[in-house]
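Attaching the record inline, Q. Sequence:
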Amino acid sequence: MRDVIKGLAINTISIGSLIVIWYGVTAAQLVPRVFLPSPVSVWQSLSTGFVSGTLLEQTTHTVVAMLVGWFLCSLLGVVLGSIIGVWPLARLSLGPVLEIFRPMPPAAIIPVAVAIFGLSREMSLIVVIFGAIWPALLATVHGFSAIEPRLKEVGAALEMSPLAFVWKIALPNATPDIIAGMRLSMVISLVLVVITNMLTGQVGLGSLVVLASRTFDMAGLFAGLCLLAVIGMISNSVLQFAERRLLSYRQ
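Structure, as predicted:
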């Protein structure tokens, strides 16, 4: 508990210092306010947006799209990664196929996804899953592949079925790697949701940021960026908390 309070205090001081520096730069007009609005202007834009309901709607759509994409890519990544990590035949057969797609930038499949699904939410979801699945998948493969030989001997001595071995021994052993991969997948999911919002103009913070930049509404632009930063910080903190709770037995 003391470590949690200490971490919150350090984070609060860091963010507060950044805001103070930001305010000082704008107050001294070191950067023209047409390019860098003051924190007060950004706060007013946030307040106005949430009171009118516009920002709440945009934020809700972004968070829901991020969570759905992250959940699906994590589920697929963990299932596929566990199969590849446990069974050598699956690694030999699926490994070359995955190596073809893994280096491909997610942005490269956007034209293909648009051609197939149009400018729809399904297209955005496909792009998010394709781009964010790799950290969860590769981390799961590594976690299952790094099982100590003595644990395999224990499973054989207890005459465990392959499914029981995966559930009772392999999965707990691979959990730290899986959670680390899922945390990275969460960040990538948010990034890709914003990018697809920008390209398709769908409801979300990405389209809000683009519209604000085109109309030179810098306060609105920075308000959207601040919301994205808060979403990323909160989602990462939640996963860190879940990681500590799930792995408390290792401490």
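The chain has two domains: 1-36, 37-250. The chain is about 80% helix and 0% strand.

More tomorrow.
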